Amino acid sequence: MRNFMNKISLVFVGIIAGVMVSLNFSAIADKEIKQELQTLPIEELRTFSQVFGRIKSDYVEPVEDKKLITEAINGMLVGLDPHSAFLDSEEYKELQIGTQGEFGGLGIQVTMEDGLVKVISPIEDTPAYRAGIKTGDLIIKIDDTAVKGMTLNDAIKRMRGKPDTSIALTIIREGEAEPLIFTLVRDVIKIESVKSKLIEPGYAYVRITQFQERTGENLAEAITKLYSESKVPMKGMVLDLRNDPGGLLNSAVAVSAAFLPSNALVVYTEGRTNDAKMQLRANPEYYLRSTGRDFLAGLPQSIKTIPMITLVNGGSASASEIVAGALQDYKRSIIMGSQTFGKGSVQTILPLSNNTAIKLTTARYYTPNGQSIQAKGITPDILDEDTDNNSRLLREVDLNRHLNNNQEESTGKKSTLKKKGTESSKESKNKTNKKPINHEPMEFGSSDDQLLTKAINHLKSMSQKSKHKTAKATKG
């Protein structure tokens, strides 16, 4: 039996080596990484083949080869960081649909931590958001099935389903003595990417819920409408990126370009391959998805100069942080709210055979001034965590296997965000006793939105100070 297993191991290692060389031959030539793949980890591949053989011969039930290999691929990617993943044909298709702003499900961004599903952010105007699911919630059961032991993809598949069907989520929430049970009804999720309104004449409010294919165009339409509705010249604008989990990179560039000077650097990326090194600027070639009309060309000129405040919180991630970082570095907008999520890594979708793909982390994002967003986030100019009811302490830095901030590694400095986000249980209990947790989601942009009220008052104060300086200069 042992000789047989050894033979199987050697054959399996040979097959793997041959397949890897054949599949990667052209990629090696193109990307100039020959030296990286000249030596294969033979001992580790032998161990892998031995485990494969043992499962095939000794596991309590027969297992198909396809399942074992697929799970091995899943394990390879999941073990890298929280954002790399294997996408089967169904998941790959839903990812493509999701970027267009319509998909089925509950409407939550999730990750896996300690074998449980952790909520990164509920998406606004979805069943999860309306039910009161919050950032930081831990899902321990889906219907009657425990999450422990599932992969993230398995859990997501269970939460998806036909519209109008019910699902029960059992959740552990910080500050709650007992698990909470939420019964939700699945829906076709249609996300309104851009929302806008006049708070009062001269003061506009624009909220971006997610960065989709048409977000830049929708923003341009919203700005044009706001200017036409205001009976007085525009005095200030609030851009709301709270609980915006991100989305498409080119849409983030488009939103930034609406407010920044032409050709200004918005974000750059650094990775191991040449393809992963990019500089994206406030220029149509970086945000138009096809050769068409520049939807930002007809915007009022004052949109580049009017006083502006951008609202962020712990649910502002990825593309949201790119926009906030660019506006902050150019001093184009005051950033107000709480520390952002810190998701500063680039995921590239790499299509494979059979309509599958891998989502692979290939680079880090940097703001125009060279600050890495990864595991750190954007620090607001005006820190205000008291009114941040919808954002908990969860950040990228709290996720298992998160990619480190390489700037902190090179300087030897450690992020203090972990300390803020991982209080002792005693401190946590004291805070919980002082302030009961609100289960009802606060509607951003409503009359109850305290941070928005503070932002408008700050804009008015800036306007008064500007008038005072002008009057003083004229008098002098």
From TrEMBL:
GO molecular function terms attached to this record: serine-type endopeptidase activity
Keyword Ion transport in record: no
Protein name: Carboxyl-terminal protease
Enzyme Commission numbers on file: 3.4.21.102
UniProt record similarity statement: Belongs to the peptidase S41A family.
Alphabetical keyword list: Hydrolase, Protease, Serine protease
Record-level GO cellular component terms: outer membrane-bounded periplasmic space
Domain PDZ: 92-160
PROSITE patterns (alphabetical): PDZ (PS50106)
SMART domains (alphabetical): PDZ, TSPc
Organism encoding this protein: Nitrosomonas eutropha (strain DSM 101675 / C91 / Nm57)
GO biological process, one term: signal transduction
Disordered: annotated segments: 399-476
Highest taxon, organism lineage: Bacteria
SUPFAM superfamilies reported in the protein's UniProt record: ClpP/crotonase, PDZ domain-like
Ranges of compositional bias, category Basic residues: 465-476
Biased composition (Basic and acidic residues): 420-430
